[in-house]
Each structure stands twice: as structure tokens, then as C-alpha cells.
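Supplementary Methods, section 5.1.

A reviewer requested that the exact input to the structure prediction be made available. We therefore reproduce it here, unchanged from the version used in the analyses.
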Amino acid sequence: MTLFERTKQIAKERGLTLRQLEKQAGLGDKSIYAWKRYTPRGTNLKNVADVLGVSVDYLLGETEDKGEINNNSETSQDFFKIDLSDIPEQERQRVIDQMEEVKEILTRDMK
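The structure derived from this sequence is encoded cell-by-cell as follows.
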């Protein structure tokens, strides 16, 4: 099973369309469909795995163990309730990285 097929299958199991998954993971339109032709950047793959609550290794087909994650660790976009779909893809990852840093600081202080 390919990366695209696994991603599509687990998204369906989670009740998500690929478009919804892309939006929640901070990816551009049709980004996941492009995975049929190329391997995504690690950060994009990690964001999708986080939204789906599985390991990156599972999506890549390296293991059959989904490594399901308790989704208390929501993505930074969900944490901040921000829609990044209007931000150009080149800038989007920089914004996501900065949001992750802030989220880490805030959640560390909440514990």
C-alpha cells in the first residue's frame, strides 16, 4: 500500500476527507494527492500523522502498528484555532513552526 493509499484509508476511518485533513494539517489544496508522485517533506508528513493520530512510520508503510496517539496532542493550528489555508505554502511552514514553539512553551507552563 502506498503512502497516499494509507493516508486516504486512515483519513476515511477517522471520518475525514482528504481536503479536511489537508486543512487541519496546514497543507495546501491537493497536497496529499501529489503524494502519489512524490514523497512529502517530513514536516508535512508529521503534521498529517499528528492529525490522524498515527505514527509517521505507519503512514510510510514501515510498520503495520499504527502507533495510535492519544490525540490530546492536537496540532498547533487546532490548539490556536487558526486557519492557515490562505497563507502561501512557503510561509505556512514557518508560521506552523513558530506556533509549535509557542504551543510548547504554553503547554509546558500549564503542567
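Residues 3-110 form a domain with the 434 Repressor (Amino-terminal Domain) fold (CATH 1.10.260.40). These observations are discussed further in the main text.
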